[in-house]
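Case study: Cyclic pyranopterin monophosphate synthase.
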Amino acid sequence: MSALTHIGATGEAHMVDVSAKAETSRVALARGHVAMARETLRLAVEGQAKKGDVFGVARVAGIMAAKKTSELIPLCHPLPLSSVSVEITADDALPGLRVLAEASVAGKTGVEMEALTAVSVACLTIYDMLKAADRGMRIEGVELVEKRGGKSGDWRRGE
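Here is what the predicted structure looks like once written out:
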């Protein structure tokens, strides 16, 4: 494991200077899921949630959140994102909804935090949209799956 780059010599937090880094293509993929009762999953899939389209609203919320990551995470650089996608799929075996987000940029720093923020906020939105039916839902497994590009190279989570 490498040294933490956001910690100064005396232990203070600071934003990393990326001005000397080369702009490269960078991509990050993150995932998470919301476990819920089967009846709650049915409501979401059939479009019967009281607040409306769970899939559409959560997808847009995740995309919007990725764009606001530097406003939410104190030491993140603001990035001109090239793309953000959020996919939400029903999983009867869980039961629940799985969220997968991909973020990309041509820049000097990675987009891992943007992908993770997209997943987190999409999951929180799913919870908010369905909480009237199931307050026992659980947001679980939010994690980075893969990152490509940059000085440190590619990384993929081993299964």
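For the exam, be able to explain this: Helices lie at 38-45, 54-67, 69-72, 112-130.
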